[in-house]
Amino acid sequence: MHYPAWYVPFLTSPMLIAIIAILHVLVSHYAVGGGLFLAVETRYAYRTNNKEYLAYLKDHAWFFILITVVYGAITGVGIWWTIGLASPLATETLIHTFVFGWAMEYVFFVLEIISAFIFFYYWGRLEPKVHQAMAWIYAFSAWMSLVLITGITAFMLNSGGWVENKNFWVGFFNPQFVPQVIARTGGALLLSSLYVYLHAAFRVKDTALRDLIASRSTLPALVGAACVTLGGIGWYIFLPESAKAALAAASSLNIFMVLIFVLTIAVFAMLYLGPLRHPNWVSPGFALLLFGMGLAVFSAGEFVREAVRKPYIIYNVVLSNQILPEEVATLREKGYLEGGTWTSAWVRARYPNVVRSQQIDEKALLALPEPDQRELGKVLFQYHCSSCHATTEGYSAVAQLLRGWTPEMIKNLVQNPEKFHFFMPPWAGTPEEAELLTKYLVSITPPRPGGMR
Is the pLDDT of residue 387 over 90? Predict the structure, then answer.
């Protein structure tokens, strides 16, 4: 415990991360698939000397850069800002573990930016071969960025054998690496086609050109959808046991899985019946519907992927409440408040009378007035529980979850959270601190609803 807690009212900090991350992912995958689309289609347009198609591709390249470079960069910075505040220990662990991987990703990212700008701003001033080369440099660099980042994010879901030997390559080529690279590459292809349909439906007036764009974008979309399905199956096969159990136990995740399954079938059907068989179907309304369904599938998948990690942020490495698993026993012995840099300083400044021989006297905490005990319990909640729970209102609000519980039931939950719900991290404090947290939770828990016996 070396960092202060960042409490986000109502939403909670992990949900804020999830919102920003999903908004970023929906564009970052387009940055990969869209780059491949521009590379392949620019080559085709030059080879067939299709000037109308080349003009459209230049127009699409402007849209592509505006969305991926401007919006994508802003949300990318937003992710780093939120994870640094909400999950500092996990962020530190990922940076230290994969510093070489991050360095490689930054190199490819710089190549992306340079080649994208040359490709667009020197359009018509470069030889066709050089112009196409810029597009392919961008496409390769963007895909390599996806591969490198996927290795790191897949590590969070299943760290494999890294815990035993701390080897970079063992952590990077974790059990989830290949399935997620396949799924994300497929998602990039699928999303890029959906963006192309949407853009072309509103920007292209010539029916023949719009039909050409629709038909040439459909095969990548179908291949992408197949890769997403194949990668998703591999993702499930290589889930840790705890993640599979969380997926089966959470009703909300079950709903999302059904939603993903149904919408994926619908997207397959719409791609086959629409752009593949009837390119003229790609109207603004059809493109918007298909685009919305694709985003819904992708967003639901990202939410499920994040949610099944509990009780970890990084599987077997960092618990969801910013504690290393090996720290739990020590904190149970010397105290959660004493074990944290910020909590310890706060207690010493606020209650110097409970400090004995440079240590917080746990028994003295229970001799404080009741309001002070509840205040200490609130601090314990903020550091130990608020990574997953809001207080009285909001996402997974603990007060609503405990409505009508007796103090004895709440105390038992505090002392043994993982026994009540296996996807909760274990209690990492002393019995006295459990009493303080219990008193705080009892004070905010509403009574049993009226009319119920």
Answer: no
pLDDT in tens, 400-444: 999 989 999 999 999 999 999 888 999 999 999 999 999 999 999
CB hemisphere CA count around 414 (13 angstroms):
28
Q: Is residue 198 scored above 90 in pLDDT?
A: yes
Identify which of 394, 390, 384, 396 has the alpha carbon closest to the alpha carbon of residue 438. Answer: 384
Average pLDDT, the chain: 92
Alpha-carbon distances, residue 46 vs 65, 127, 360 (angstroms): 21, 11, 74
Nearest residue to 444 (alpha-carbon basis) of 401, 414, 396: 401
Helices 13-48 & 177-203 angle (0-180, nearest 10): 60
* DSSP three-state, residue 314: strand
Q: What is the pLDDT of residue 453?
A: 58
DSSP state of 98: T
Residue 417 identity: P
> How far is it, in rounded angstroms, from Cα 259 to Cα 75?
26
Q: Which pLDDT value is given to residue 451?
A: 58
Q: Record the tokens describing residue 136, joined without a space.
A: 């392919």
Please give the backbone phi and psi of residue 396, each rounded to the nearest 5 degrees, phi first: 50, 45
> % helix / strand / coil in the chain, to the nearest 5?
75, 0, 25
Q: What is the pTM of this model?
A: 0.91
Cα separation of 165 and 197, whole Å?
Answer: 47
> Peptide bond preceding 275: is omega within 30 degrees of 0, i.e. cis?
no
127, exposed or middle or buried, with CB in 10 Å at 0-12, 13-18, 19+?
exposed
- In order of 96, 378, 413, 435, the CA distances from 442 in angstroms are 40, 11, 12, 10
Q: Strand, helix or coil at 1?
A: coil
The Cα–Cα gap between 220 and 223 comes to: 5
